[in-house]
Structure formats: structure tokens, C-alpha cells
Model the fold of this input.
Amino acid sequence: MDIKINPVSVAEIAEIMQVPRTKVASLHYHGKLPAPDVVLKACPLWDKENIIDFLDTIGIVDNRRKNNNGQNDTNPT
Done:
């Protein structure tokens, strides 16, 4: 069975999400993205349509603690 996908990498997902590549890599590492459709030696690849559907329906939630100004608290006490 041949499965056809429109492959996107971490870098291309970062462009779609308008975030740094490292953010997408971290989301993948922590299991916050769906499983890749294909894994090559160099990198995981997702189907572009699947990723866009995932981001539109499930999305990514920022669970970091916020300070009183609504900003991410990078130095919690």
C-alpha cells in the first residue's frame, strides 16, 4: 500500500505556527504533536493537511505559569 502525503518538517510546521523551530522540536519531544506520518533518518515528517487539522481542532496549549501581568513567569519563586 502506497501512502501519499504532502510532507512538512519541524521547520515548516514552525513557519505555519509562526514560532521558532526549537518550539516545534520541543512540542514533538514532549509528545504534544501527533505522531509523524513518516520518519526518515534525518527527521520526522508529517502530512501538512493532518498538521493543519490538528492545529485547528486541538491546537497547542501554553501551560506555563503566568505572572500578574499576564506574561510567562520565567523565574517562579
